[in-house]
Amino acid sequence: MSATEELIYNKHIFICTNQRVAGASRKSCGEAHGLEIIDAFRKKLKEKNLPIRIRVQKAGCLDICDFGQTIVIYPEGIFYVGVKIDDVDEIIEEHIINDRFVERLRFRKK
Ligand code: FES
After folding, report:
1. Residue 89: its pLDDT value, please?
2. Do 41 and 55 contact (CB within 8 A), yes or no?
3. DSSP letters for 20-89
4. Greatest pairwise CA separation for the chain in angstroms
5. What is the pLDDT of residue 47?
6. pLDDT tens, position by position, 58-72
7. CATH superfamily of the domain spanning 3-105
8. In the chain, which stretches have pLDDT less than 70?
9. Ligand 1 proximal residues by C-beta, below 6 Å
């Protein structure tokens, strides 16, 4: 059995929904639109009915909070930041279906 066949999910999408208390010094993804992003991924992936195993789930803080809504997709371990509802289609089409990273949203350490 290959490493890919052993994966429970071919793509595992974690979406930060952390929400800090009002007045906190750092922003958090939950205040932005974390839950709406989850709903958008789930709805669009269901519509596509792709022949691979995909899981979309909530995550706590992914610790790169200063760049806007953060998600990470495994097994590649690619972080995307500043993700908006309008970006969901592109992430699904490029990363999930075509295995190409969405470079304009990709987080890179400086
Ligand atoms: S609050 Fe979302 S990455 Fe920290």
Report:
1. 98
2. no
3. PPTT-SS--HHHHTHHHHHHHHHHHHHHHT-SS-EEEEEE---S-GGGSS-EEEETTTEEE-S--GGGHH
4. 51
5. 97
6. 999 999 998 999 999
7. Glutaredoxin (3.40.30.10)
8. 4, 32
9. 16, 18, 28-29, 61-65, 70
